[in-house]
Amino acid sequence: MRKQNLLFFGMILIGLNCYTQNLTCLDFKTGKFYIPMNDKLEKVTIQSKDSVSELKLKQDKNINKWVIIRKKNTQTEWMNGLNNGTPLYAKLEWIDNCTYRLTYDGNKTKLKKHEKWTNENNGIVVTNVQILGKCMEYKATMTTNNGEKISQSGTICKE
Q1: Regarding predicted confidence, which is higher, 41 or 17?
Q2: Which of 33, 79, 102, 130 is a plausible cystine mate for 68, CB 3.0–4.6 Å?
Q3: What SS3 string covers 2-56?
Q4: Would you put residue 9 in left (φ > 0), alpha (ψ -120 to 50) or beta?
Q5: What is the C-alpha separation between 86 and 54, in angstroms, rounded?
Protein backbone atom coordinates (compact mmCIF):
# COMPACT_ATOMS: atom_id res chain seq x y z
CA MET A 1 0.00 0.00 0.00
CA ARG A 2 2.81 2.40 0.88
CA LYS A 3 4.56 1.73 -2.46
CA GLN A 4 1.33 2.51 -4.29
CA ASN A 5 0.97 5.82 -2.43
CA LEU A 6 4.56 6.79 -3.24
CA LEU A 7 4.09 5.78 -6.87
CA PHE A 8 0.84 7.77 -7.09
CA PHE A 9 2.47 10.81 -5.46
CA GLY A 10 5.46 10.55 -7.82
CA MET A 11 3.20 10.40 -10.88
CA ILE A 12 1.32 13.51 -9.71
CA LEU A 13 4.62 15.39 -9.32
CA ILE A 14 5.76 14.33 -12.79
CA GLY A 15 2.40 15.36 -14.24
CA LEU A 16 2.50 18.75 -12.58
CA ASN A 17 6.06 19.30 -13.76
CA CYS A 18 5.00 18.62 -17.36
CA TYR A 19 2.47 21.45 -17.19
CA THR A 20 4.73 23.97 -15.45
CA GLN A 21 5.93 26.80 -17.67
CA ASN A 22 9.64 27.28 -17.94
CA LEU A 23 9.80 30.94 -18.82
CA THR A 24 12.67 32.43 -20.80
CA CYS A 25 13.80 35.99 -21.46
CA LEU A 26 11.55 36.06 -24.53
CA ASP A 27 8.52 35.71 -22.25
CA PHE A 28 9.41 39.06 -20.66
CA LYS A 29 9.52 41.02 -23.95
CA THR A 30 5.77 41.53 -24.34
CA GLY A 31 2.72 41.19 -22.13
CA LYS A 32 1.40 42.32 -18.78
CA PHE A 33 3.78 42.39 -15.82
CA TYR A 34 4.10 43.76 -12.33
CA ILE A 35 7.01 44.87 -10.17
CA PRO A 36 6.26 44.08 -6.53
CA MET A 37 7.54 46.58 -4.01
CA ASN A 38 10.18 44.98 -1.78
CA ASP A 39 13.32 45.79 0.17
CA LYS A 40 15.59 45.22 -2.84
CA LEU A 41 14.19 48.33 -4.51
CA GLU A 42 15.35 50.49 -1.59
CA LYS A 43 19.04 49.73 -2.17
CA VAL A 44 20.96 51.66 -4.83
CA THR A 45 24.69 51.18 -5.39
CA ILE A 46 26.80 54.02 -6.76
CA GLN A 47 30.23 53.17 -8.11
CA SER A 48 32.57 56.01 -8.99
CA LYS A 49 36.21 55.88 -10.00
CA ASP A 50 37.57 55.42 -6.48
CA SER A 51 34.65 54.31 -4.34
CA VAL A 52 31.47 52.33 -3.99
CA SER A 53 28.63 53.62 -1.87
CA GLU A 54 25.10 52.55 -1.13
CA LEU A 55 21.99 54.65 -0.84
CA LYS A 56 18.80 53.58 0.81
CA LEU A 57 15.77 54.99 -0.96
CA LYS A 58 12.61 55.71 0.96
CA GLN A 59 9.72 53.84 -0.60
CA ASP A 60 6.27 55.33 -0.95
CA LYS A 61 4.20 53.04 1.28
CA ASN A 62 1.11 53.83 -0.82
CA ILE A 63 2.60 51.93 -3.77
CA ASN A 64 2.15 48.14 -3.61
CA LYS A 65 3.33 47.34 -7.11
CA TRP A 66 3.93 48.81 -10.54
CA VAL A 67 1.83 47.38 -13.36
CA ILE A 68 3.50 47.30 -16.78
CA ILE A 69 2.14 46.69 -20.25
CA ARG A 70 5.01 45.91 -22.57
CA LYS A 71 4.85 45.81 -26.34
CA LYS A 72 7.77 45.11 -28.62
CA ASN A 73 9.72 48.35 -28.10
CA THR A 74 7.56 50.28 -25.62
CA GLN A 75 6.25 49.95 -22.13
CA THR A 76 3.59 51.78 -20.15
CA GLU A 77 3.74 51.77 -16.34
CA TRP A 78 1.09 52.50 -13.73
CA MET A 79 1.36 52.68 -9.94
CA ASN A 80 -0.98 50.28 -8.10
CA GLY A 81 -2.98 49.02 -11.03
CA LEU A 82 -3.81 49.32 -14.67
CA ASN A 83 -5.18 52.74 -15.65
CA ASN A 84 -4.62 54.04 -12.10
CA GLY A 85 -3.37 57.62 -12.28
CA THR A 86 -1.03 59.03 -14.90
CA PRO A 87 0.98 56.42 -16.81
CA LEU A 88 4.71 56.60 -17.40
CA TYR A 89 5.80 55.84 -20.98
CA ALA A 90 9.14 54.32 -21.90
CA LYS A 91 10.98 53.19 -25.01
CA LEU A 92 12.86 49.90 -25.01
CA GLU A 93 15.92 49.23 -27.16
CA TRP A 94 16.62 45.49 -27.05
CA ILE A 95 20.35 44.75 -26.89
CA ASP A 96 19.73 40.99 -26.84
CA ASN A 97 16.84 38.75 -25.70
CA CYS A 98 17.71 39.28 -22.02
CA THR A 99 18.95 42.88 -21.98
CA TYR A 100 17.41 46.22 -22.98
CA ARG A 101 17.98 49.94 -22.62
CA LEU A 102 15.05 51.93 -21.18
CA THR A 103 14.55 55.62 -21.90
CA TYR A 104 11.51 57.73 -21.11
CA ASP A 105 9.21 58.80 -23.95
CA GLY A 106 8.90 62.59 -23.95
CA ASN A 107 6.63 62.48 -27.01
CA LYS A 108 3.82 60.87 -25.00
CA THR A 109 4.09 62.77 -21.73
CA LYS A 110 5.93 65.66 -20.13
CA LEU A 111 9.06 64.28 -18.49
CA LYS A 112 10.01 65.09 -14.92
CA LYS A 113 13.51 66.31 -14.05
CA HIS A 114 14.87 62.85 -13.09
CA GLU A 115 13.40 61.24 -16.24
CA LYS A 116 15.09 63.88 -18.43
CA TRP A 117 18.35 63.30 -16.54
CA THR A 118 18.04 59.53 -17.10
CA ASN A 119 17.59 60.08 -20.85
CA GLU A 120 20.51 62.54 -20.97
CA ASN A 121 22.69 59.82 -19.41
CA ASN A 122 21.79 57.22 -22.07
CA GLY A 123 18.99 55.53 -20.12
CA ILE A 124 18.94 52.48 -17.91
CA VAL A 125 20.30 49.10 -19.03
CA VAL A 126 18.22 46.26 -17.57
CA THR A 127 19.73 42.76 -17.51
CA ASN A 128 18.20 39.42 -16.55
CA VAL A 129 19.95 37.88 -13.55
CA GLN A 130 17.76 34.77 -13.23
CA ILE A 131 14.24 33.56 -13.83
CA LEU A 132 12.41 31.93 -10.93
CA GLY A 133 8.92 30.65 -11.71
CA LYS A 134 6.97 33.48 -13.31
CA CYS A 135 9.38 36.18 -12.11
CA MET A 136 12.65 37.52 -13.41
CA GLU A 137 15.28 38.94 -11.10
CA TYR A 138 16.99 41.86 -12.85
CA LYS A 139 19.74 44.38 -12.40
CA ALA A 140 19.19 47.92 -13.70
CA THR A 141 22.34 49.98 -14.31
CA MET A 142 22.88 53.50 -15.54
CA THR A 143 26.30 54.85 -16.41
CA THR A 144 26.24 58.62 -16.05
CA ASN A 145 28.07 61.00 -18.35
CA ASN A 146 30.65 61.58 -15.59
CA GLY A 147 31.43 57.84 -15.32
CA GLU A 148 29.43 56.86 -12.24
CA LYS A 149 27.58 53.55 -12.35
CA ILE A 150 24.26 53.55 -10.52
CA SER A 151 22.62 50.16 -10.08
CA GLN A 152 19.56 48.66 -8.46
CA SER A 153 18.16 45.13 -8.35
CA GLY A 154 14.53 44.16 -8.56
CA THR A 155 11.96 41.64 -9.66
CA ILE A 156 9.44 41.72 -12.50
CA CYS A 157 6.71 39.08 -12.70
CA LYS A 158 4.54 37.97 -15.59
CA GLU A 159 0.80 38.07 -14.93
Answers
A1: 41
A2: 33
A3: HHHHHHHHHHHHHHHHHHCCCCCHHHHCCEEEEEECCHHHHEEEEECCCCEEEEE
A4: alpha
A5: 30
